[in-house]
């Protein structure tokens, strides 16, 4: 398949991150520990600010083949998806701190649902980004 692009992430690592988000949100719900969402929020912020995702970094050591042998996922798309997740997780934590449980479940539910659907094979963030790019293009040619 050639050398891995600097602008791609091996699919198993993206899926690991999705499982991490899915499981931390589920854990926060099951045990009613809203601040447990600080884990995926911190990972997401680290990825945004420092371009370092500790979950993906740790997952690399478990891959048996060369990174280039795995299907690539677009890194720019993953950054976009991460930004949406960070905003929603931040909204969930702020809602929890404000005592607004509806907001907590609404925001964390969006992240949980998006991660669940992504694990099933459809990327909600990809769809949103595609529609945004399409809108920008249509606006630019008018």
Structure explained in plain terms:
- This protein has 142 residues and is mostly helical.
- Helix content is 70%, strand content 4%.
- The protein is globular and about 45 Å long.
- It starts with 7 loop residues before the first strand and ends with a helix.
- The mean pLDDT is 95.
Name the features.
single chain; 142 residues; mainly alpha; two-stranded antiparallel sheet; 70% helix; 4% strand
Can you give the mean pLDDT? 95
Order of helices and strands: EHHHEHHH
Beta-strand percent range: under 5%
Query: Strand tally, please?
Result: 2
The major sheet is characterized as:
2 strands, antiparallel
- Which consecutive residue ranges, at least 5 long each, have pLDDT under 50? none
What is the fold's blueprint, element by element?
Blueprint: E1 8-10, H1 11-30, H2 38-50, H3 54-60, E2 72-74, H4 75-97, H5 101-119, H6 124-140
Antiparallel strand pairs: 1-2
Helix pairs in contact: 1-3, 1-5, 2-4, 4-5, 4-6
Outline of the structure:
The chain has 142 residues and is mainly alpha-helical. It is built from six helices and two strands; from the N terminus they run E-H-H-H-E-H-H-H.
